[in-house]
Amino acid sequence: MKSWVTVFFLTFSLLCRAEERKEFDILVAGIKIGELSASKITEDSITSYSITSAVNFWFLVRIKADYSISSRYKNGKLISSFVETRSSKGDFKSSVVWEENHYLVKVDTYQYKKDTVLFSPIYFNVARLYFEEPARMENLLADNYGQIAPSKRLEANVYQVIVMGNANHYYYKVGEMEKAIMHNPVKNFEIRRRSSNDD
Fold first, then answer.
1. d(CA 77, CA 163)
2. 94 - beta bridge partners?
3. For a FRET experiment, which of 17, 25, 75, 170 has its CA 20 to 30 Å from that of 56?
4. Residue 14: what are its φ and ψ, rounded to 5°?
5. How far is residue 104 CA from its own chain's centroid?
6. In which element (H, E) is residue 129 found?
7. SS3 for 109?
8. Strands 17-28 and 31-43
9. Contact by Cβ (8 Å): 95, 80
10. How far apart are CA 1 and CA 5, in angstroms?
């Protein structure tokens, strides 16, 4: 009897836990320089988004960077976001955490540091863009810099997000992100969703 009950609750828990995963290639001028993996897990009222990426290429010097975002939402509102970067320019961390009536923001990234608070609830961050077309663009969090990014819909299924003065563009098809064009002072790069045939 006990084993049957255990099996029942394990099965029920798995049914209540939905997981989605997407894979992307990172390209510069059509040349693959890295990969990005995005995952979304929903369990009861909590939805977690995880983004991990790694790039490794030669541009006058060897450039390597491992980047990750881990964020959690409760009933649709962001409750935490943590960013870690390990690169040839150093290791960096940023965090945005909801505490009672505000977000506590701590940022230590390349050539930029910030300790502040944000009071308005956040319902969308960069990690969530990889899974769904934003229904509204206000208060979109640029996690790495702990700031609200000016954002707008340019046309059907195309959105612009400005991070530290740089305009990034996200393209969707049937509500899911197909690619993003990310601004870079040297050369823009593209994040393109990998089809099942690319594996």
1. 21
2. 83, 107
3. 170
4. -65, -35
5. 19
6. helix 126-129
7. strand
8. antiparallel
9. yes
10. 6
CA distance 64 to 57: 7
What's the rounded Cα separation, in Å, for the pair 97 and 95? 6
CB neighbour list of residue 2: distance below 8 Å, 6 or more residues apart: none
Looking at 10-24, 118-132, 185-199, which range is the least confident one? 10-24
User: Tokens 């769904």 map to which residue?
Assistant: 132
Interval 157-181 mean pLDDT: 94
Q: Give the residue among 94, 72, 88 at the shortest CA–CA distance from 144.
A: 94
* Residue 39 amino acid letter: S
List b or e across 4-39, with b for residues whose CB sees 16 or more CB atoms inside 10 angstroms. Answer: eeeeeeeeeeeeeeeeeebebbbebeeeebbbbbbb
